[in-house]
Design brief:
Layout lengths: L1 H34 L3 E3 L6 E4 L15 E6 L6 E5 L7 H13 L1 E4 L1 E5 L19 E6 L2 E6 L17 E2 L6 E2 L19 H15 L4 E8 L8 E4 L4 H13 L5 E4 L8 H8 L3 E8 L12 H6 L3 H8 L14 H22 L6 E3 L4 H7 L16 E3 L1
Parallel strand pairs: 4-6, 4-11, 11-14, 12-13
Antiparallel strand pairs: 1-16, 2-3, 3-6, 5-15, 7-8, 9-10, 12-14
Helix pairs in contact: 2-8, 4-8, 8-9
The protein binds zinc ion.
């Protein structure tokens, strides 16, 4: 009797010890990712760094009070807001925003940039899908490390999810987890859950600053039909169609489609409906997001090469081409930047009274030729007050 009691106690102690041996190092990794300070260096064009809560006090002291980088030429003109990191598992959108902050010098009008529009979603990945926690970009001075993220806000910041997410104000029913999806909670509300509050904060900012052009950077899986395209609100359709034609006649194919009028919560629908800004979403290809992908690692995230996705393409299951060269991060960031630039140029053609001009935006051909890292600045070489941590 005594022996079996002793044995069961030993078994319990061993089980608890094994459990702790798994949970402590695992938890430490998750905490290190959540608390990692991601450097953004202020380029020569940045005149001010504000917080989203400067326009919307109801996001102060939340994980989503992200930095808003202001590039003000001092010359009256139009204004543009570019947001990266709506979906932090789409790194080209984030890195495009970083290249704007670190390189662009405005010469007419004003540019606002959010690198981490949903900061909370950048503090969690998908361990169950074996996502890498970080990714590194090789630069002229070494590596720059960025947080990999998820599509949805961190449940630690937004819990519990409802049984069904009732979109405000349309009352459209959406999947429960999309109450944490920054591209399903527009236009948001100040007393909603954190992701709804974040989109409402951007709406308030867009109105207060009279933003003319709103661009939401994304990437898409090749199995999804909305890819290599600009999705535009109907008010912005002429500008988007011209940009699509000019790009497709030149360096690369970029389509254009209308934002569905009855599908609510998306940025290109609600920003266009609730503000005076012309709303655009850019989607470039990211094989990492495809469900049929192989090993889900940093190499796939950055190089975009995958034999299984290629096989899906051979079977006619994809909406974009892929070959053994894949879709690397240089191509994806480059296309995003060149598309933003073309939208700005076409907007200036239609609305010459609201010009936005600038220098030194790295374009697709530059980035593909020189590598993305060539356009990232060295935080160690910058003045301390010219480095911001996201
Ligand atoms: Zn996305």
């Amino acid at each position: 009797m005594a022996d079996s009691k002793g044995n069961s106690l030993v078994i319990k102690i061993v089980v608890v010890a094994l459990w702790l041996a798994l949970i402590i190092p695992g938890g430490r990794q998750l905490a290190a990712h959540r608390n990692y300070e991601e450097a953004v260096v202020l380029g020569p064009g940045v005149t001010e760094v504000k917080k989203l809560s400067d326009w919307a006090p109801y996001v102060a002291n939340t994980p989503n009070d992200c930095s808003i980088y202001v590039l003000d030429s001092g010359v009256p003109g139009g204004s543009m807001l570019v947001i990266g990191g709506t979906h932090p598992e789409e790194p080209a959108g984030v890195l495009s925003a970083v290249t704007i902050v670190e390189n662009v010098v405005p010469t007419t009008g004003k540019i606002y940039v959010a690198v981490r529009a949903n900061r909370s979603a950048s503090t969690v990945t998908r361990p169950g899908d074996a996502y890498p926690q970080f990714f590194n970009i090789n630069t002229d001075f070494g590596k720059r490390t960025f947080r990999m993220g998820d599509r949805w806000s961190n449940p630690l910041d937004s819990w519990p999810d409802p049984e069904v997410y009732v979109h405000y104000p349309s009352k459209q029913l959406l999947a429960y987890m999309d109450v944490r999806n920054l591209n399903r909670t527009w236009p948001g509300r100040p007393d909603g859950m954190i992701t709804e509050r974040t989109t409402r904060a951007f709406i308030d900012m867009i109105k207060a600053e009279n933003i003319d052009i709103f661009v939401d950077n994304h990437e898409a899986e090749l199995e999804y039909s909305v890819i290599s395209t600009i999705v535009a609100h109907q008010a912005a359709a002429d500008v988007a169609a011209m940009a699509s034609m000019m790009l497709s006649a030149g360096e690369f194919n970029m389509g254009m489609e209308f934002s569905p009028t009855l599908l609510h919560g998306l940025s290109h629908r609600e920003v266009g409906d609730h503000t005076d800004a012309y709303a655009f979403e850019i989607e470039v290809p990211e094989p990492f997001l495809d469900r049929v992908r192989g090993i889900t690692d940093e190499a796939l995230l950055l190089e975009g090469k995958d034999e299984f996705v290629m096989r899906a393409g051979q079977a006619g299951l994809l909406y974009e081409k892929i070959d053994e060269n894949g879709w690397n991060i240089h191509e994806r960031v480059g296309r995003t930047n060149s598309t933003i630039d073309m939208i700005v140029q076409m907007f200036a053609m239609f609305y010459p009274d609201k010009p936005i001009t600038y220098e030194s935006l790295p374009m697709r051909n530059d980035i593909v030729a020189n590598g993305l890292g060539h356009y990232l600045l060295d935080p160690a070489q910058a003045e301390a007050d010219r480095v911001v941590y996201e």
